[in-house]
Amino acid sequence: MNSPRLIQIAHDDPAAIRDELLAGLAAPTATISPKYLYDALGSRLFSAITELPEYYPTRTEAAIFTEKMQSMAEALGPVATLVDLGAGNCEKAARLFDPFQVQRYVAIDISADYLRESLENLQRQHPAMDMLGMGLDFSSTLRLPAELGDAPRTLFYPGSSIGNFTPEDALVFLRQAHAACQGGALLIGVDLVKPIAILEPAYDDPLGVTAAFNRNMLRHLNQLAGTNFNIADWRHVAFFNAAASRIEMHLEAVRDVLVSWPGSERRFATGERMHTENSYKWRADDFAALLQSAGFTRLERWTDDNQWFAVFAAFS
Predict the structure, then answer these.
(1) What is the DSSP letter of 106?
(2) 44-93 pLDDT, tens digit each
(3) What residues contact 308, with CB distance under 8 A and at least 6 apart?
(4) Are residues 301 and 160 part of one domain?
(5) Tally of domains in the chain
């Protein structure tokens, strides 16, 4: 049986992280990257969000893969190398191994150590497959190392995470993905525009799990940047910005607050907000046009019956 290999491409720089966070806090409208929602507790809270009846993206995407798997496999398989971007627990990619006839699996997440247990379990189920876990933050630049070779690859980016990018940044990312495919393909999940009555509860559920997920970011900031946020001073706000076609998540001060950190401080007035996440919602034809602008020449598309979510295969 093969053993999975683990490599860490880039290591966290605590000083650089602190500088990034404090620059965001000092901006005219305080803004924090959504990647800082995902500390250990935040990741568990997000897993709980995916179980909520209001949160349609995970189950809708999963249903598309279940119903359309044969068609996807015919379009994409066999896959020599499957590169899983933001692999997490690797469960979504693992469902593709047999139907796509995957020969090599590369799981990418910020921390290679985080992938260790999942890859060891997968290796026991697929003892002949070559597996590599790679610690890499691709949120700003998607540049895969030469170790992966120069053969065509299939990049897998499910979960509608592309929605965290502005349309301009999404185009930059997709151009990088096109180059990283090296003549292969990209399989990507995209959340589509739908009625506000469906969209907003998915990001502001009545049980308050998403609120806890958002407010937990403040604890993470205290750890990373030495701030003194008090969670009780802030409430979760989420709404659909129709003009920008995006869900916005914010943290709003419920009273006048003074937040300090070593060397500086900032006052937030009652009602003042920090912007913590965007989730852009696309029209399917518009996203297809974006993929073509990024250099992909042939597209396949699968959606659910409600047209709530789409999975695209884009070929380079």
Answers:
(1) E
(2) 999 899 999 999 999 999 999 999 999 999 999 899 999 999 998 899 99
(3) 56, 60, 191, 192, 194, 198
(4) yes
(5) 2
The tokens describing 96, both together, are: 């593709």
Residues 14, 17, 19, 25, CA torsion sign:
negative
Residue 133's domain spans which residues? 55-194+281-315
CB 160 within 8 A of CB 246: no
The answer to whether 288 and 301 are in contact (CB under 8 A) is yes
Residue 113 counted as domain residue: yes
Its pTM surpasses 0.90: yes
- Let me know whether 73 and 187 are in one domain: yes
Tokens representing residue 81 in the block? 């190398």
Which positions ≥6 away from 193 have C-beta within 8 Å?
245, 281, 282, 283
Do 212 and 302 have their domain in common? no
Q: Which two tokens stand for residue 300?
A: 């396949």
Q: Which tokens sit at 61? A: 């995407």
